[in-house]
Amino acid sequence: MTDTLTPDAGAGPGTAPGAGPTDAVPMDALPPAEPRIRTGGVTRADLATLAGAAGGSLALDWLLHQRLLPFSGAAGFLILWYLLFLAFYAGAGRLQWDGQFVRERMVAVLAWSSGILVATVIVLQIGFLAVRGVTAASHLNFFTESMERTAGLSPITSGGALHAVIGSLEQLGLATLFAVPLGIAAAVYLSETGGRFARPVRSLVEAMTALPSIVAGLFVLGVVILTLGVERSGFAASLALTVMMMPIVTRAAEVVIRLVPGTLREASYALGASQWRTIWTVVLPTARPGLATAVVLGMARGIGETSPVLLTSGFTTYFNLTPFSEQQLNLPLYIWNYVKLPYPDMVSRAFAAALTLMALVLVLFVTARVLGGRRPGDLSRRQRRRIERESAGARRPAPARSVRPAVALRTAQAARRAAATRQAAATRRAEAVRPTAVPGAPRTADSQ
Question: What is the pLDDT of residues 54-91, one digit of tens each?
Fold first, then answer.
């Protein structure tokens, strides 16, 4: 028996003449159902293809790298394995999928493998530093002492990097104090004000972004130290770091300010605000999360610079809490000086300082990610909760007992004064319409 499909009784105007609720359409005459397209996820075929391509490419790589080709080394083995894996995966995928789907899967594999490679390199770096520096970092004296009384053959329980950590924080703080206002002001000029000098300023900022750090150190050395006579100190090092940080802050802040919707500026101008008032009260507060990200990225760039500090701050093993006088050490210079010494304990201290520096940079980048996770103008969760509380309080009627006695007394007095004023006005209107008595006229009963 052939399956049939009965159409609905309420057929539209396009129904053929004579077709009614009793007409039947054979199921064989209907077009086949379209296959359901899977837009995401991983199937068993994908996993099998990945495993087969990885295994086959590994076997061929070993055969070529160890038996046939005159190559050696782990780096060449891994690179050849990756290239063969891509070729095997593309070939295996072409046997079972169409060309467009194969290209999509190849892009996905490239993206995933690139992310895994970056994460692997970061983990290997942190692991390498942790293994080499755990001997010194496991002792508390490394974070509480300086190298004032420590020599090359001193035990690992003597000396530390506290003076370098303090120097890094002070120099970075001064550089941030100098670079952030200049960078944000330049970004506002490039994105909001403009003018005939906007293009040269933008070209100069882009050129300074790729400026070698040694050039910044030579500039401060030649102009500030040798010409002006300023001694090598943390202040001079902070000036060199300012030269490196300012273009980073400027470029990042300009991009963020350009993301602020133009409708906000138009609304501010429509209310009569000037351009600078609009920038100060609308544009900059809206772009605050992105500006914070720009500042933190600039700080992360400046905290790891070595060449400018090498030429401007000098080297010392003592505590120096004043960055404006005498030489001051920071973490990059600490690492550069002690990692090349032929003493294992000194090398271990240098690696522990590198691990500390990486932890500081990681904290800065995580802070940038947290502060810059929202788009310009988006409210944080804390701000939304505060607005909801204020809205709920505005909708709720205030209880009678919440009115203070003094306020209630003033309100009652004002009501009595208003009532007395209204009564006096009514009396004056009544007197104005009362008839006036004519002299010599007979008195009526009403007038009596």
Answer: 999 999 988 888 888 777 788 888 888 999 999 999 99
Summarize pLDDT for 394-438 with one digit per residue, the tens: 666 555 444 445 555 566 666 667 777 777 777 777 666 555 444
| Count of residues in the chain | 448
Residue whose pair of structure tokens reads 């004043």 in the numeric block: 322
With 70 as the cut, is the pLDDT of residue 380 above it?
A: no
| 236 neighbors 220 (Cβ within 8 angstroms) | yes
Model's pTM, two decimal places?
Answer: 0.66
> How much of the chain is in helix, strand and coil states, percent to nearest 5?
70, 0, 30
Using CA atoms, how far residue 275 sits from 189, 250, 253, 255, 265, in Å, is 12, 20, 18, 19, 9
Among the listed residues 295, 256, 275, the one whose alpha carbon sits nearest the alpha carbon of residue 377: 256
How many other CB atoms sit within 10 Å of the CB of residue 81? 18
Q: What letter does residue 401 receive in the DSSP assignment? A: G
DSSP 106-135: HHHHHHHHHHHHHHHHHHHHHHHHHHHHHH
The half-sphere exposure of 232 on its side-chain side, counting CA atoms within 13 A, is: 16
Q: Nearest-CA neighbor of 341 among 328, 353, 327?
A: 353
Q: List beta partners, residue 5.
A: 25
Which residue reads 């055969």 in tokens? 63
Nearest to 98 by CA among 33, 57, 37, 42: 37
- Please name which of 142, 135, 140, 139 lies closest in space to residue 162, comparing C-alpha atoms: 142
